[in-house]
Amino acid sequence: MNPKVRYPAVAEAFYPADALELDRLVAAMLHEQDPPSLSGRKVRALMVPHAGYRYSGRIAAAGYRTLGSLPPLGTAILMGNAHTYLFDGIALDSHESWHSPLGNVPVDAKMNKALLAKAPDLVHELDIAHHSDHILEVQLPFLQRALKSGFSILPLLFGDNSPGVHERAADLLLAVLGKDDLIVVSTDLSHYPCFQDANLIDSSTIEHVVGKDLKALELQEHRLRTMASGELSLYCSPDALKTLLVIANRLGWHAEKLCYCNSGDDPHDDKRAVVGYGTVIFYES
Protein backbone atom coordinates (compact mmCIF):
# COMPACT_ATOMS: atom_id res chain seq x y z
CA MET A 1 0.00 0.00 0.00
CA ASN A 2 1.18 3.49 -0.86
CA PRO A 3 1.72 5.56 2.35
CA LYS A 4 0.88 8.71 0.39
CA VAL A 5 -2.66 7.48 -0.26
CA ARG A 6 -5.58 7.44 2.20
CA TYR A 7 -7.41 4.15 1.60
CA PRO A 8 -11.11 3.46 2.33
CA ALA A 9 -12.13 2.65 5.89
CA VAL A 10 -15.77 1.69 5.30
CA ALA A 11 -15.90 0.15 1.82
CA GLU A 12 -18.27 -2.84 1.91
CA ALA A 13 -19.76 -1.66 5.21
CA PHE A 14 -21.29 1.58 3.89
CA TYR A 15 -21.03 1.01 0.13
CA PRO A 16 -19.80 -1.76 -2.22
CA ALA A 17 -16.07 -2.39 -2.28
CA ASP A 18 -16.23 -3.83 -5.78
CA ALA A 19 -15.58 -1.09 -8.34
CA LEU A 20 -18.09 -2.29 -10.93
CA GLU A 21 -20.83 -2.86 -8.38
CA LEU A 22 -20.21 0.55 -6.79
CA ASP A 23 -20.14 2.33 -10.14
CA ARG A 24 -23.44 0.77 -11.17
CA LEU A 25 -25.08 1.57 -7.84
CA VAL A 26 -24.00 5.22 -7.78
CA ALA A 27 -24.89 5.68 -11.45
CA ALA A 28 -28.35 4.22 -10.81
CA MET A 29 -28.97 6.46 -7.80
CA LEU A 30 -27.88 9.53 -9.74
CA HIS A 31 -30.01 8.55 -12.73
CA GLU A 32 -33.11 8.11 -10.54
CA GLN A 33 -33.01 11.72 -9.42
CA ASP A 34 -34.89 14.49 -11.20
CA PRO A 35 -32.67 17.57 -10.76
CA PRO A 36 -34.26 20.98 -10.22
CA SER A 37 -34.12 23.54 -12.97
CA LEU A 38 -30.85 25.43 -12.51
CA SER A 39 -31.17 27.89 -15.37
CA GLY A 40 -28.93 30.85 -14.58
CA ARG A 41 -27.86 29.32 -11.23
CA LYS A 42 -24.53 27.83 -10.23
CA VAL A 43 -24.37 25.31 -7.39
CA ARG A 44 -21.70 26.33 -4.88
CA ALA A 45 -22.35 24.01 -1.94
CA LEU A 46 -24.24 20.92 -0.81
CA MET A 47 -25.52 19.67 2.51
CA VAL A 48 -25.72 15.87 2.19
CA PRO A 49 -25.98 12.87 4.55
CA HIS A 50 -23.35 10.20 5.21
CA ALA A 51 -25.10 7.01 6.31
CA GLY A 52 -24.79 3.72 4.47
CA TYR A 53 -25.95 4.00 0.89
CA ARG A 54 -28.90 1.72 1.70
CA TYR A 55 -30.31 4.42 3.97
CA SER A 56 -29.20 7.77 2.60
CA GLY A 57 -27.55 7.14 -0.77
CA ARG A 58 -30.51 8.34 -2.81
CA ILE A 59 -30.87 11.45 -0.67
CA ALA A 60 -27.19 12.32 -1.22
CA ALA A 61 -27.49 11.50 -4.93
CA ALA A 62 -30.15 14.19 -5.33
CA GLY A 63 -27.54 16.80 -4.44
CA TYR A 64 -24.76 15.35 -6.55
CA ARG A 65 -27.11 15.08 -9.53
CA THR A 66 -27.17 18.90 -9.71
CA LEU A 67 -23.41 19.06 -10.35
CA GLY A 68 -23.58 17.64 -13.85
CA SER A 69 -24.04 21.07 -15.43
CA LEU A 70 -21.08 22.65 -13.64
CA PRO A 71 -17.91 23.64 -15.49
CA PRO A 72 -14.80 21.67 -14.50
CA LEU A 73 -14.51 21.81 -10.73
CA GLY A 74 -11.42 23.08 -8.95
CA THR A 75 -11.54 21.73 -5.40
CA ALA A 76 -14.32 20.10 -3.42
CA ILE A 77 -13.93 21.22 0.20
CA LEU A 78 -15.36 18.32 2.23
CA MET A 79 -16.39 19.32 5.75
CA GLY A 80 -17.86 17.56 8.75
CA ASN A 81 -17.47 17.06 12.47
CA ALA A 82 -15.24 14.13 13.41
CA HIS A 83 -17.00 10.94 14.48
CA THR A 84 -14.18 8.57 15.40
CA TYR A 85 -11.31 10.52 16.98
CA LEU A 86 -11.15 13.18 19.69
CA PHE A 87 -8.96 16.23 19.10
CA ASP A 88 -8.91 20.01 19.36
CA GLY A 89 -9.08 22.31 16.34
CA ILE A 90 -9.60 21.52 12.67
CA ALA A 91 -7.96 18.47 11.09
CA LEU A 92 -6.61 18.46 7.55
CA ASP A 93 -5.11 15.39 5.87
CA SER A 94 -1.53 15.19 4.60
CA HIS A 95 -1.99 12.36 2.09
CA GLU A 96 -1.42 13.18 -1.57
CA SER A 97 -4.67 11.51 -2.59
CA TRP A 98 -7.72 9.64 -1.33
CA HIS A 99 -8.63 6.30 -2.84
CA SER A 100 -12.06 4.82 -3.45
CA PRO A 101 -12.92 1.69 -5.44
CA LEU A 102 -13.47 4.08 -8.38
CA GLY A 103 -9.88 5.39 -8.26
CA ASN A 104 -7.77 8.13 -6.69
CA VAL A 105 -8.60 11.80 -6.19
CA PRO A 106 -5.77 14.22 -5.34
CA VAL A 107 -5.80 16.31 -2.16
CA ASP A 108 -5.32 20.03 -2.79
CA ALA A 109 -1.90 20.45 -1.17
CA LYS A 110 -1.76 24.16 -1.99
CA MET A 111 -5.03 24.90 -0.18
CA ASN A 112 -3.93 22.67 2.70
CA LYS A 113 -0.73 24.66 3.05
CA ALA A 114 -2.54 28.00 2.85
CA LEU A 115 -4.94 27.11 5.68
CA LEU A 116 -2.10 25.82 7.85
CA ALA A 117 -0.20 29.06 7.35
CA LYS A 118 -3.20 31.27 8.14
CA ALA A 119 -4.18 29.61 11.42
CA PRO A 120 -1.49 27.30 12.84
CA ASP A 121 -3.12 27.52 16.27
CA LEU A 122 -6.39 26.08 14.96
CA VAL A 123 -5.68 24.07 11.81
CA HIS A 124 -3.48 20.96 11.88
CA GLU A 125 -2.60 18.06 9.62
CA LEU A 126 -3.93 15.13 11.63
CA ASP A 127 -4.23 12.05 9.46
CA ILE A 128 -5.40 9.84 12.32
CA ALA A 129 -8.58 11.91 12.59
CA HIS A 130 -9.45 10.94 9.01
CA HIS A 131 -8.15 7.37 9.17
CA SER A 132 -11.36 5.60 10.23
CA ASP A 133 -13.95 8.34 9.75
CA HIS A 134 -16.63 7.60 7.19
CA ILE A 135 -18.44 10.92 6.84
CA LEU A 136 -16.21 12.40 4.13
CA GLU A 137 -15.16 9.10 2.59
CA VAL A 138 -18.69 8.17 1.52
CA GLN A 139 -18.93 11.38 -0.55
CA LEU A 140 -16.02 10.44 -2.79
CA PRO A 141 -17.77 7.93 -5.12
CA PHE A 142 -20.58 10.42 -5.75
CA LEU A 143 -18.09 13.14 -6.66
CA GLN A 144 -16.17 10.76 -8.91
CA ARG A 145 -19.31 9.70 -10.75
CA ALA A 146 -21.05 13.09 -10.93
CA LEU A 147 -18.16 15.36 -11.88
CA LYS A 148 -15.79 15.73 -14.75
CA SER A 149 -12.32 14.43 -13.95
CA GLY A 150 -9.57 16.80 -12.88
CA PHE A 151 -10.93 18.03 -9.55
CA SER A 152 -9.20 17.74 -6.19
CA ILE A 153 -10.51 17.53 -2.64
CA LEU A 154 -9.77 19.22 0.68
CA PRO A 155 -10.91 16.94 3.55
CA LEU A 156 -11.58 18.94 6.71
CA LEU A 157 -12.88 17.65 10.05
CA PHE A 158 -13.86 19.74 13.06
CA GLY A 159 -12.85 18.47 16.48
CA ASP A 160 -13.64 19.83 19.94
CA ASN A 161 -13.81 23.61 19.63
CA SER A 162 -15.27 26.72 21.23
CA PRO A 163 -18.85 27.62 20.22
CA GLY A 164 -17.79 30.36 17.78
CA VAL A 165 -15.32 28.34 15.72
CA HIS A 166 -17.60 28.47 12.67
CA GLU A 167 -17.06 32.22 12.30
CA ARG A 168 -13.30 31.81 12.21
CA ALA A 169 -13.50 28.77 9.95
CA ALA A 170 -15.64 30.77 7.51
CA ASP A 171 -13.02 33.55 7.45
CA LEU A 172 -10.30 31.02 6.66
CA LEU A 173 -12.23 29.29 3.90
CA LEU A 174 -13.38 32.52 2.29
CA ALA A 175 -9.72 33.51 1.98
CA VAL A 176 -8.94 30.42 -0.14
CA LEU A 177 -12.28 29.64 -1.84
CA GLY A 178 -12.11 29.93 -5.62
CA LYS A 179 -14.95 30.61 -8.06
CA ASP A 180 -14.84 27.03 -9.33
CA ASP A 181 -14.62 25.38 -5.91
CA LEU A 182 -17.46 23.49 -4.21
CA ILE A 183 -18.25 23.08 -0.51
CA VAL A 184 -19.75 19.78 0.62
CA VAL A 185 -20.98 19.59 4.22
CA SER A 186 -21.62 16.06 5.39
CA THR A 187 -24.22 15.80 8.16
CA ASP A 188 -27.07 13.57 9.14
CA LEU A 189 -30.03 15.20 10.87
CA SER A 190 -31.92 14.23 14.04
CA HIS A 191 -30.54 11.27 15.92
CA TYR A 192 -32.87 8.72 17.54
CA PRO A 193 -36.27 10.35 18.00
CA CYS A 194 -39.25 8.31 16.84
CA PHE A 195 -40.26 8.40 13.18
CA GLN A 196 -42.99 11.05 13.57
CA ASP A 197 -40.88 13.34 15.76
CA ALA A 198 -37.94 13.11 13.36
CA ASN A 199 -40.12 14.33 10.52
CA LEU A 200 -41.19 17.37 12.55
CA ILE A 201 -37.74 18.16 13.95
CA ASP A 202 -35.95 17.76 10.63
CA SER A 203 -38.54 19.77 8.73
CA SER A 204 -37.81 22.69 11.05
CA THR A 205 -34.04 22.20 10.77
CA ILE A 206 -34.13 22.17 6.99
CA GLU A 207 -36.36 25.26 6.99
CA HIS A 208 -33.73 27.14 9.03
CA VAL A 209 -30.91 25.89 6.79
CA VAL A 210 -32.72 26.99 3.64
CA GLY A 211 -33.38 30.35 5.29
CA LYS A 212 -29.70 30.51 6.32
CA ASP A 213 -31.01 31.43 9.75
CA LEU A 214 -28.16 30.53 12.08
CA LYS A 215 -29.79 32.05 15.17
CA ALA A 216 -33.01 30.07 14.70
CA LEU A 217 -31.00 26.91 14.16
CA GLU A 218 -29.03 27.43 17.38
CA LEU A 219 -32.21 28.24 19.31
CA GLN A 220 -33.83 25.05 18.06
CA GLU A 221 -30.72 23.09 19.02
CA HIS A 222 -30.76 24.51 22.54
CA ARG A 223 -34.49 23.87 22.94
CA LEU A 224 -34.19 20.26 21.77
CA ARG A 225 -31.28 19.49 24.07
CA THR A 226 -33.13 21.06 27.01
CA MET A 227 -36.37 19.19 26.37
CA ALA A 228 -34.65 15.87 25.69
CA SER A 229 -32.11 16.22 28.53
CA GLY A 230 -29.30 16.06 25.99
CA GLU A 231 -30.33 12.65 24.65
CA LEU A 232 -31.19 13.84 21.15
CA SER A 233 -29.12 15.79 18.66
CA LEU A 234 -30.30 18.04 15.85
CA TYR A 235 -27.47 17.12 13.46
CA CYS A 236 -24.02 15.61 13.74
CA SER A 237 -21.82 18.20 11.97
CA PRO A 238 -22.82 21.43 13.70
CA ASP A 239 -19.55 23.32 13.16
CA ALA A 240 -19.38 22.37 9.50
CA LEU A 241 -23.00 23.30 8.80
CA LYS A 242 -22.75 26.59 10.67
CA THR A 243 -19.56 27.44 8.77
CA LEU A 244 -21.40 26.87 5.50
CA LEU A 245 -24.30 29.08 6.59
CA VAL A 246 -21.91 31.91 7.50
CA ILE A 247 -20.24 31.64 4.09
CA ALA A 248 -23.58 31.46 2.27
CA ASN A 249 -24.83 34.58 4.04
CA ARG A 250 -21.67 36.55 3.37
CA LEU A 251 -21.61 35.65 -0.32
CA GLY A 252 -25.34 35.99 -0.86
CA TRP A 253 -25.92 32.39 -1.88
CA HIS A 254 -29.47 31.04 -2.01
CA ALA A 255 -30.56 27.63 -0.71
CA GLU A 256 -33.13 25.05 -1.74
CA LYS A 257 -34.29 21.79 -0.16
CA LEU A 258 -34.15 18.85 -2.54
CA CYS A 259 -35.34 15.88 -0.48
CA TYR A 260 -35.64 14.26 2.92
CA CYS A 261 -36.27 10.90 4.54
CA ASN A 262 -35.30 9.10 7.71
CA SER A 263 -34.20 5.57 8.46
CA GLY A 264 -37.75 4.72 9.52
CA ASP A 265 -38.84 5.03 5.89
CA ASP A 266 -37.11 1.70 5.31
CA PRO A 267 -39.92 -0.87 5.81
CA HIS A 268 -37.55 -3.19 7.67
CA ASP A 269 -36.14 -0.60 10.07
CA ASP A 270 -37.21 0.40 13.58
CA LYS A 271 -39.45 3.48 13.67
CA ARG A 272 -38.95 4.02 17.41
CA ALA A 273 -35.44 5.50 17.07
CA VAL A 274 -34.46 6.87 13.67
CA VAL A 275 -31.87 9.09 11.99
CA GLY A 276 -32.85 11.83 9.55
CA TYR A 277 -31.28 12.50 6.14
CA GLY A 278 -31.72 15.62 4.03
CA THR A 279 -30.11 17.34 1.06
CA VAL A 280 -29.96 21.09 0.49
CA ILE A 281 -28.18 22.88 -2.36
CA PHE A 282 -26.67 26.35 -2.16
CA TYR A 283 -26.32 28.35 -5.34
CA GLU A 284 -25.53 31.77 -6.74
CA SER A 285 -27.61 33.41 -9.45
Summarize the structure.
This protein has 285 residues and is an alpha/beta fold.
Secondary-structure topology with pairs:
Elements: E1 5-6, H1 19-32, E2 42-48, H2 53-64, E3 75-81, E4 90-92, E5 97-100, E6 103-106, H3 109-118, E7 123-125, H4 127-131, H5 140-146, E8 152-158, H6 165-176, E9 182-186, H7 195-210, H8 214-227, H9 238-251, E10 254-262, E11 276-284
Parallel strand pairs: 1-5, 2-9, 3-8, 3-9, 4-7
Antiparallel strand pairs: 2-11, 4-8, 5-6, 10-11
Helix pairs in contact: 1-2, 1-5, 6-9, 7-8
Provide a descriptive summary of the structure in words.
Helix 1 (about 20-30) packs across helix 5, helix 6 packs across helix 9 and helix 7 runs antiparallel to helix 8 (about 215-225). The strands form two sheets. This protein has an eight-stranded mixed beta sheet, with helices on both faces. The chain has a three-stranded mixed beta sheet with strand order 1-5-6. The protein has about 280 residues and is an alpha/beta fold. It has helices at about 20-30, 55-65, 110-120, 125-130, 140-145, 165-175, 195-210, 215-225, 240-250, and strands spanning about 5, 40-50, 75-80, 90, 95-100, 105, 125, 150-160, 180-185, 255-260, 275-285.
